[in-house]
């Protein structure tokens, strides 16, 4: 926890949660960044699992509408129950409405010991060799960028082009609970298109409408890494792809579809 900042992204509030200022995104101070939302939905899905010792291997988030900073509710259900493989759905609503704002579908599998593919070393400088940096484009000082300790192996928050960064949590996801490595991964990964932006934040919108994360194994440790590249097409759409790492190797990949328009 950082002195002077909220201790968590969300505070339990009756049958839901109250988003703190650490969830504020870059586009509007009244709207949440999708990273904390994604982590909160994954937490809810894993709480509803029928495979308690399993692993979440694919998470697909559809961002159906912006999420306001304020009270939210999450709910999960099993779409495809199973003892070895299951599919779960979690949805987030806000402001007393039943309209889903963000939806997650998550595949989970039973964990078992198998002979895996040898892991190549992470081809990035480690967090100790990487450069601390704070994003300059947020309109408020207390916002999403303060929730994680950012260390850039290459690229920058504040300059265009591909970028790779390591992060570690500076707060909890939910007050009173430690942030799990998977929750941390999701808080971080939705920023892939932000750290690798190729357009000027002041002149263009390039918000993602989805986030898909595919994992070959669960993340582990305090430091997680994202190595991202954004490409913008000529017809108003973009894509961001990122490799995801922990300290011991590559753990998966993410993809985001971007809506691109002048501001």
Automatic annotation (TrEMBL):
The residue ranges of the Acyl-CoA thioesterase-like N-terminal HotDog domain are 25-109
The superkingdom listed in its UniProt entry is Bacteria
Give the Acyl-CoA thioesterase-like C-terminal domain ranges: 127-260
- What this protein is called in its record is Thioesterase-like superfamily protein
